Amino acid sequence: MATTRDYEPNVVLSNQDYNVVGTRPLRPDGADKVTGRALYGADFAAAGLLSGSVLRSPHAHARIKSIDTSKAEALDGVRAVVTSADFPQGGEGPVVWQRDNVLASDKALYRGHAIAAVAAASPHIAEEAVSLIDVDYEVLTPVTDVQSSMKGDAPILHDSLMTDELGEKADKASNVASHFQHVKGDVKAGFKEADVVIEREFTTKTVHQGYIEPQAATALWNNDGRLHIWCSTQGSFAARDACAKILDIPVSQIRVVPLEIGGGFGGKIDVYLEPVAALLSKKTGTPVKLVMSRADVLQGTGPTPGSYAKIKIGAKKDGTITAAHAYLAMEAGAYPGSPVGAGAMCVLAPYDLENALVDGYDVVVNKPKTAAYRAPGAPNAAFAGEQVIDEVAKAIGMDPIDFRMKNAAKEGTRQVHGPTFPRVGYEEVLEAMKSHPHYNAPLDGPNQGRGVAVGFWFNIGFDSACNIAVNADGTVTLQEGSTDIGGTRASIAMQAAEVLTLPYEKVHPTVVDTDTIGFTAVTGGSRTTFATGWAAYEAAQDVRTKMIDRAAQIWEVDADTVELEDAVFKSKSDPELSMTFAELAGQLGRSGGGITGTAAVSPSGVGGAFAGNIVDVEVDPETGKTEILRFTVVQDAGKAIHPSYVEGQMQGGAVQGIGWALNEEYYMSDSGTMDNVSLLDYRMPTSLDLPMIDTVIVEVANPGHPYGVRGVGEAPIIPPTPAIANAIENAIGTRLFALPMNPAAVAKAVMDK
Amino acid sequence: MAQEITLTVNGATRTNQVEPRLLLADYLRSVLDLTGTHVGCDTSNCGACTVSLNGDAVKSCTVFAVQADGADVTTLEGLASDDGTLHPIQEGFWEKHGLQCGFCTPGMIMSSLDLLSKNPNPTEAEIREGLSGNLCRCTGYHNIVLAVQFAAEKMNSGS
């Protein structure tokens, strides 16, 4: 921690400058967030608001024989009790799974699975009422890890689930929802060409996103039949559409108002409380609020999967990888849908491979249905893949960065699952790592080690909308549908400001509800600054064109003779004709009316992002405790719209990866319940566990975005677990194949050496 | 079985009838509508509910409202001057991008207040120790350390 820094700790390797893009202005929501005025999910208040509470299954696997709510209903102050029977029934597959995850119907599939809910005059009455609900369970044997669940004799979670085996449906119930393959070349022949072949098995435990704000939602089923929901969500439209499906009502009947969101990391995309609050409000005719406890969050909301991986990589002595095979099996939780698909796309992505095979297995277990968590699936895969890469590099005596460089994916490389890379910045990331002062600094004592690893995330586009209105004082208001978790109000407003040549402070962004803006997909997939930024760019272009037309009309000249530069409209032909943006804004009303711009986009030019880590650790061989001495994150952002927020994503992602590497896990009992259901026992990194996190932002512009944005939120969580594992191996001379690499595991590895 | 309590919150005297089981955090949030105090874990691990109780930082989810009878409580809402000038710590968190989602921020700021009142010139290690009872999942703490350093400098220079 006492590293002296005689170098710039946070660097931006930029090659294109703009006026606003690339600067570091203050966040527009800052005043509210440092004064306590910002309203988060649980802060919402309304006249007549009732408090809800949810009954959760104490069993990891049980058949629900009956639910008796009569005693709860009879309690003074209780206004309504609901169970799964109150939902519209019918349907099959995903909609049933989604509905059953919100309130269990025939089976409780994990401890913490919601069974029933109460609305009452106070939270205390609601909690008391929940304890009066009698549920008759037939307790079944649970299975809570992916390897056990794949065995032929494992307890079956869903009698109707048949494996989709390479596109063919099996005829027997199984916990394996699907098995898919990506194939390129001929791996058998490739391994034959190799001088070195290394094959290893890896496991990772279930971990949680760990956002500090527990889920909270308030619903009002109004007397006109419209449902209003105020909640903390990563996607107001996603929440709206999920509620519409579960409640079997049209999307237009629902309005979701996103409140401030206290962290999500993927975990606040799925709905949990919203449909239940809606049912309770429908029954009571008043608004009902539900707020989760931390135990509810850990036991009832999506973690990210525990997993099993087997990786085999072969290379020639000159460093050429000849073949790679990745076998990935990931826990889906109680219902199908693990992130193994994404993991399979990312595991070998950094390498230009002639021959490769990826097998992916999606497996249900008696744990909460997994939800997205920052580059879902990719960290599990990279923990395995990047360790074998490290081992192969060692075996042939090559520097691990040089080995990666020799096999680096680049523009034109066909990925194992099919697509060919457009321009990507992987080689530039490797170069920045290799030349970083950290990589070239000596280690400083025994039991210290250095590790490197890289990660790839593809990023996504999807739909975004944006509205911009010009105010008479020369400012503009900007409405967006993307909820702001980490500073996207700023990064989106900045892109509009750039187009309009206005200072950032003149653009006032607001996150609005689903009745106020066009469909906007979730804040996730590292898409918001890319896609909603693009919508803001287009909406600002719309305003710009209309403003130029208006200036031309006032001046009685051709529009194409008018230009906008530094917030001043000028005539190219007549230097006398000039007015500021504010002057024109002030006369819109008397020159034909106000000006607004709008855009709805679904950009396809998504640019994937590569990140790399250099980490130094010191291991105490007696206690097994690993201290992170120094940590450097290098990442290709394409273009960092707001470099401080990009650095924030890199640092935050790295630290979540450090927690995943060293401490975090769902500690499961034999009866299938999670034993560490508090933030005391589910141990996330504190400030004391960490050094400052150094960053290098590499900017290799994404040709598919007007400013070159790639998206930055997810890639930084991918390399930390293998980078730390490689560093530990370097420190103690033996490798760890399971997460977490907590003191007990490391001490055992030292002893077994 | 309500019990009467009288306490000072952000400079104003408050008298309320409260149930003995009501937590200070819930009293502040639901009775006084001071929702700047956040509840993140219920078990005093995350520190989002940190407030100042007679000058010391406490996690208000582990204090009963009745235990605060007669006390002087400051929450995040009480930190800025009446003219709207932010406290240097509030300024530091904003200026140094010491927050992303902002949910842990109230507790972080109140713990920083406690730290800087007792140690006006903390080292990086002392800041990390002083804030080790407050969890942030977004920032990796990097900019939070910078925010507290910014505040310390500003408070010491008296500006």
Overview of the structural elements:
- The complex is a heterodimer of chains A (753) and B (159).
- By secondary structure, chain A is an alpha+beta fold.
- Chain A has 20 helices and 29 strands.
- Chain A is globular and about 85 Å long.
- By secondary structure, chain B is of the alpha+beta class.
- Chain B has two domains: 3-78, Roll (Ubiquitin-like (UB roll)); 88-157, Orthogonal Bundle (DNA polymerase, domain 1).
- Helix content of chain B is 33%, strand content 16%.
- Chain B is built from five helices and five strands; from the N terminus they run E-E-H-E-E-E-H-H-H-H.
- Chain B has helices at residues 24-31, 88-95, 105-118, 124-130, 142-157, and strands at 3-9, 12-18, 50-53, 56-59, 72-74.
- In chain B, helix 2 (88-95) crosses helix 5.
- Chain B is globular, with a radius of gyration of 15 Å.
- Chain B starts with a strand and ends with a helix.
- The model of chain B has no long low-confidence stretch (mean pLDDT 97).
- At the A-B interface, helix 1 and helix 18 of A face helix 2, helix 3, helix 4 and helix 5 of B.
Which short descriptors sum up this protein?
heterodimer, A: 753 residues, alpha+beta, Aldehyde Oxidoreductase, domain 3, Aldehyde Oxidoreductase, domain 4, seven-stranded mixed beta sheet, 20 helices, 29 strands, B: 159 residues, Ubiquitin-like (UB roll), DNA polymerase, domain 1, 2 domains, five-stranded mixed beta sheet, 5 helices, 5 strands
Oligomer: heterodimer
Uncertain segments of chain B of ≥5 residues (pLDDT<50)?
none
Total strands of chain A? 29
| Major sheet attributes of chain A | 7 strands, mixed
CATH superfamily of the domain at 41-140 and 215-291 in chain A: Aldehyde oxidase/xanthine dehydrogenase, a/b hammerhead
Strand content of chain B: 15-25%
Give the CATH level 1 class of the domain at 41-140 and 215-291 in chain A: Alpha Beta
Supply the number of helical segments of chain A.
20
- Overall, the morphology of chain B is globular
Calculate the terminal CA-CA distance of chain B, rounded to whole Å.
49 Å
Determine the CATH superfamily of the largest domain in chain B.
Beta-grasp domain
